[in-house]
Fold:
Amino acid sequence: MLLVNTETIPGKKIVKSFGIVRGNVIRAKHIGKDITAALRQLVGGSLPEYEEMLTEARSLATARMVEEAEKLGADAVVNIRYTTSTVMQGAAEILVVGTAVQVIDE
Structure:
């Protein structure tokens, strides 16, 4: 499965569009990691607990989008965009959307 954030794929021609596909996930860290991150926030610097949470969430949301595209018969997703929103303190939603397409070599 080809995944790009552009409208086209160099060397490929889009022959069919299946429409918008998406994947989303809401993730939260357990209370121990929230406390650790809160203490780090007081002194400043990186918050690896949340970086890890968001990286995992992006990967899972992307996998869900790919699964939806594959069910439609797509072999690529173009124009991919990610958004993040806070659902509650310590929990974030990652949403990824794109257009599922079928491509051939030019």
